[in-house]
Write a structure and sequence with these properties.
The protein is 77% helix and 0% strand. The protein is mostly helical and 74 residues long. It has one domain. Helix 1 crosses helix 2 and helix 2 packs antiparallel against helix 3. The longest helix has 22 residues. The chain is flat. It starts with a helix and ends with a helix.
Amino acid sequence: MDFYDRHKDERERFEIIAKRYPPRQKTDFEALADMAATLVEGGLILGKVLRDATILPRQILLYRDLVRSIFLPG
């Protein structure tokens, strides 16, 4: 599976979630999927450069919180 396929799957996953849990605000699922890929790549690079293995996990947890805040009711 290449990058495009993973990105498409991620976007489609957000669309499925949105059917059950409508977003609290208008959300660009394409950009949200891009953000996931960027976060992982950037977190890996920063972790290596700064020699800090906690950067990527912390960024992923923060992304999870963002996604939850978009879909869970207030």
